[in-house]
Amino acid sequence: MLNIASMSLSGGQGKTTVAVLLAKYLAEQGSNVLLIDSDPQANATTFLGHSVESDEPTLLEAIKGTVDIEDAVYETEISNLSLIPADDALDQVQDWLSSSGAGAVMLRKRLKPLKSHDICIMDSPPQRSQICKTIIGASDYILMPCESSVKGFGSMVRTLCAVDELNDIEVSSAQILGVIPFRDRWVGNNRTNESQLCISAMEEELDGDAPVFPTIRESERYKQAISGKTTLKQLGYPDLEYPFEVISDVIRSIKR
Ligand code: ATP
Ligand code: MG
């Protein structure tokens, strides 16, 4: 299983949008995909139409090891797409991870028994927290959605720092898959100055080490496509799927 985190260490950067739409896209292309919701806000869980019952195992129990990981995996209404859900209680795992002494490597260890998925996409929370460290430790690749704004540039730099820190002490070997500029604003046929400056700054900062993928344009369509079984293609906007097509090609070439 190839583990990819959608991570960006600020709020509202498009992490959940990218995680859910990429997972749906890859599942539609025939990959067997596992989406892990690792944000106590549980937005990905909600978007996939899953409601957590009080006695149901979630990512919390899976990380703590009080259930077998397989028991926290649920089918969704989308074929080829399974989910390890989250709910608000996931916040409790922060203290548990920090006192475990092995927080950064815990999720990777827990995911090892899973053999039936090709790709795991992890939706991350915005904070630089214990959850974020365990996701970096579990990741083969980090995909960074970053708003095409000054805040988004800052989020990219924070995320790169967090990954470097864990790679330096060798609890992670995550590589950067690339940046996907989010809410890229255009007026008519022209990209706004702010978007252009921020995307150029992202390219400069990455300096060829990782790609800046085609952007997610500012558009209500993505919000519509994120819920339930719909996809951008089914909504009649296949061209808006282009960023996911490109990322999926890169993932396919890595898997080969
Ligand atoms: P958080 O840090 O809270 O987890 P996030 O990084 O996961 O946020 P999203 O929830 O994916 O970010 O997106 C932030 C907001 O942008 C959401 O309200 C979402 O509906 C909206 N949004 C998604 N796609 C687009 C788009 N293409 N254009 C404009 N807004 C969008
Ligand atoms: Mg989110």
List keywords for this structure.
256 residues; Rossmann fold; two-stranded antiparallel sheet; 10 strands; binds adenosine-5'-triphosphate; binds magnesium ion; AAA_dom; P-loop_NTPase; Chromosome partitioning protein ParA; DNA_Partitioning_ATPase
Quaternary assembly: single chain
The DSSP helix count reads: 10
Overall radius of gyration: 17 Å
Query: End-to-end span in angstroms?
Result: 12 Å
Q: What is the name of the CATH architecture?
A: 3-Layer(aba) Sandwich
Domain tally = 1
- Quantity of strands, as a count: 10
Roughly what is the average pLDDT, rounded to an integer? 97
Task: Write up this protein.
- The structure is a single chain.
- The protein has 256 residues and is of the alpha/beta class.
- The chain has helices at residues 15-28, 43-47, 59-64, 93-100, 103-111, 130-138, 150-168, 193-206, 220-226, 242-255, and strands spanning 2-6, 33-37, 74-75, 81-84, 119-123, 141-147, 175-184, 186-187, 190-191, 216-217.
- The strands form two sheets. It has an eight-stranded mixed sheet with strand order 3-4-2-5-1-6-7-10, sandwiched between helices.
- The longest helix has 19 residues, at 150-168.
- The structure holds adenosine-5'-triphosphate and magnesium ion.
- Residues 8, 11-17, 39, 41, 43, 126, 183, 216, 218-219, 222-223 line the site of adenosine-5'-triphosphate.
- Magnesium ion is lined by residues 15-16, 39, 43, 123.
- It holds the Pfam family AAA_31.
- Residues 4-165 form the AAA domain.
